[in-house]
Amino acid sequence: MAVALAAAAADFAALARHGLFGRLAHPEYLRRVESHLRALHRRGLEVHLRVLEAGDYEDYCAALGLDPRAPATRVAYAADPELAGEPFVYAGQRLAGLLPVLLDDHRARVRMSVAGVALLQAVGDDEDGRRRLAAVMGYVTAVYLALAAGAGEGGHLLTLRCHGPEDGEQLTSAVDLRVRAGSLRPEGRDTEAFCVTLAAGVAGGGTGALLLHGDPAAPGGALVRGWALAGGRLRPMTVHEVFDELADDAARGLPFPPGVVPRPGFPVPGFPGEGEGGGSRG
């Protein structure tokens, strides 16, 4: 069964005007939801959680002509098949520890959905489009694995921003990249969202930047390497370009990493048929 949960206090407050929660305050609502979830789990039922987001829920109701106050509407929203990716399965956890994980998962789903729409628009839905989609996803997977191999041991961070060639919507994504004993540790939904976002930039001929932030605990400071996305292809940045990108990030409100050491990007696989480091679009 599926349960939609108002995890954020702001969403709870916005939805309370529809009378969804009676006279409950958010803390009491969460306690009741937790009791309900744990009871279902003890009975052996598989419960799929979804974040009950005010704006999305209200848009859903308006689009389908549903009463937002009706319990059946909340059930339908929770079980909406348009939700991206595999379900978030409740495993008996306390909500205090679960909510941050659920919200992170939700944000990754949103990024993946938005990027997925851009990706499918870029490749098309005919037979040629399906072949191009397969080629793009294969390329992105190869790039992701090359970045992990080049990053080396430790915990790293990949950040990506890109947009279409004609003032397209900006897409952003980030994923922790952990390499232990030469093996890449999976990071779940964030990895999926990152790869789909990069694929949308590649397929759409987008521009942007990809940064690999090295392990901050490494000797000598946190190395940051970069790749420019231009015309849907990646090329290694120079040291100056990496520094400029970090400065631009700071101007956009992101913290400038302390002790950062800009480094050029290393070569990554080229798009199939174009060789290392990218090339003209196919």
| Rg (C-alpha, Å) | 21 Å
Given as residue ranges, the uncertain stretches (5+ residues, pLDDT < 50) are 277-282
For the residues shown, what is the average pLDDT?
A: 87
Q: Helix content range of the residues, please?
A: 40-55%
Question: How many distinct domains?
Answer: 2
Q: Element order, helices and strands? A: EHHEHHEHHEEEHEEEHE
User: What oligomeric state is this?
Assistant: single chain
Sheet having the most strands: 7 strands, mixed
Classify the beta-strand content into a percent band.
Answer: 15-25%
| Total of DSSP H or I helical runs spanning 4+ residues | 8
Shape: globular
Q: Determine the N-to-C terminus distance.
A: 45 Å
Count of beta strands: 10
What is the structural class? alpha+beta
Highlighted features:
disordered C terminus; 282 residues; three-stranded mixed sheet; globular; seven-stranded mixed sheet; alpha+beta
Question: What does it look like?
Answer:
This protein has 2 domains: 2-93, no CATH class; 117-264, no CATH class. The protein is built from 8 helices and 10 strands. 45% of the residues lie in helices and 21% in strands. Strands 4, 5, 6, 7, 8, 9 and 10 form a 7-stranded mixed β-sheet that branches. With 282 residues, it is an alpha+beta fold.
